[in-house]
Specification:
Chain lengths: 127, 182
């Protein structure tokens, strides 16, 4: 494989521009991986890796990913919050790469909440 | 935590929470001195002397959702276990600097692990924070700066899946080129 160069980003930029022009550049879903010490120690990075790979493979550009800190439920980590914009956020507990892939394919892409993995509905209060 | 890359990810999240705009991560591998070290420096809000004295206590945290704060103590422990040392300096309003050293060949030194992945996760999860990364290996080195990436991609968000994939691969290639062994 040819070595990657900074200039390659130009091509990516042009391609993304062409895609976003079609959908007005808004995000449909926000996925948050909780990345506190407790989350990282229990595998949140691997969950995030799986999520990024899924997004790349599905070639969707309306899913926004972000990370957040610990919310005090360390024993239930790794935690992932899926928020379809305009709907109540759903928090998933004990997530691993396999569950993440399922949550992505079913909930993020098709809107079907994966009840067996759900911890709670709603957003935490950040103190 | 089984990899140093995870510690780096964890400690850098502290910087982000302290409101840093830029975080500098420098890793250095010197086989001649049998030394492996890294420094994480930020321009966040910093800490007062009183807080700084307490950060190494596992039962101290600035968060209110739980009563323990294990990130820094676990990293210090990992360094001490591997014949190394740990230092933290901070100035209120200016930022914080964490420096850690390990004996490179020590049997209990954790492997560096997936550092390109850890950096990609940091970039993906923290919009608005710039990361400056450098890895020195003997007299060779590899550098990476998200400011340069942002310049190239213009109005495309750095969190875009293709951009992130490129970043991960770029760092991985850069590191294998300078022949890192940690």
């Amino acid at each position: 494989m040819a070595k990657l160069k900074i200039e390659d980003l130009k091509k990516i930029k042009d391609r993304v521009h062409a895609e976003t022009a079609l959908r007005d550049g808004y995000n449909r879903v926000k996925v948050t991986v909780h990345m506190g010490t407790c989350g990282i120690a229990s595998g949140a990075k691997e969950v995030m890796d799986a999520l990024m790979r899924e997004i790349g493979e599905a070639e969707v550009s309306d899913v926004m990913i972000t990370t957040s800190g610990c919310m005090g439920l360390c024993s239930r980590e790794p935690l992932v919050t899926v928020e379809i914009i305009g709907q109540v956020p759903i928090k998933y507990e004990y997530v691993n790469p396999n569950k993440m892939r399922q949550i992505f394919k079913k909930h993020v892409l098709e809107g079907e909440i994966q009840t067996p993995f759900v911890l709670a509905k709603g957003a935490e209060i950040v103190k | 935590m089984l990899e140093l890359a995870l510690h780096i990810l964890d400690i850098t999240e502290n910087s982000v929470r302290a409101g840093a705009k830029t975080v500098w991560i420098e890793i250095s591998e010197e086989s001649r001195k049998d030394l492996f070290s890294f420094v994480i420096r930020d321009d966040g809000q910093g800490m007062s002397k009183a807080v700084l004295e307490k950060v190494m206590d596992p039962f101290f945290t600035s968060k209110k959702v739980r009563r323990v704060g294990l990130g820094l103590p676990m990293l210090a422990e990992a360094a001490e276990r591997a014949g190394g040392r740990f230092a933290i300096e901070s100035q209120e309003g200016l930022g914080t600097r964490v420096a850690v050293e390990f004996q490179l060949s020590h049997i209990d030194r954790q492997p560096l692990g997936d550092i390109s992945g850890a950096l990609t996760v940091l970039i993906a999860g923290n919009d608005g924070v710039d990361f400056v990364f450098r890895y020195r290996c003997g007299d060779r080195n590899f550098g990476f700066n998200t400011k340069e990436i942002r310049q190239e991609i213009g109005d495309v968000p750095i969190q875009q899946a293709e951009v992130l994939k490129w970043i991960r691969q770029y760092i991985r290639e850069g590191l294998s080129e300078i022949g890192t062994s940690a």
